[in-house]
Amino acid sequence: xxxxxxxxxxxxxxxxxxxxxxxxxxxxxxxxxxxxxxxxxxxxxxxxxxxxxxxxxxxxxxxxxxxxxxxxxxxxxxxxxxxxxxxxxxxxxxxxxxxxxxxxxxxxxxxxxxxxxxxxxxxxxxxxxxxxxxxxxxxxxxxxxxxxxxxxxxxxxxxxxxxxxxxxxxxxxxxxxxxxxxxxxxxxxxxxxxxxxxxxxxxxxxxxxxxxxxxxxxxxxxxxxxxxxx
Length: 230
Prior knowledge:
This protein is α+β, with helices and mostly antiparallel strands.
């Protein structure tokens, strides 16, 4: 690809590594594109944040294609991951320490399959307090890290598929297909409550956005290597 190709607009599929923020991925790719073509400025953006503790598909747009980011953001998304039963955390994942433990002896594989069906369709879901949503101009995770509490409004989301793929208690592996705005961490937390227990998200991988698959994505290193060879 040439400098003009990136300016006219490219859609790049990147497999985001663990612990990286989506913003860090964008910055890294932008820097390498600028270095490769010795240009001072190029627009680069992502079409949907992945939490640092999640891996998987990140759609990156460059140049004029950044104007189309909203079209990718609205696409259905598929995730796979692991929900750990018997304990909750304030962030609903492993970013924070366990704050409460619950029994899981009463939970069977049949119960898991039955309860999972309750989460298919249009649902009201509250985002986690540890999220990038803004309230009164401030990110919720900034308020949470300062120990401030705030009322979070629920939002309507759609889950078209929620499949339990493997059970090895306390860990439950799953696959989910959902709409824009769905928090899988909140799904894990709510699933734990529905089981009369507690739960948090312990692994998460985004596998699809619309027709785009992580199978066709490059690692950051792979993209940089391809860029250098052009």
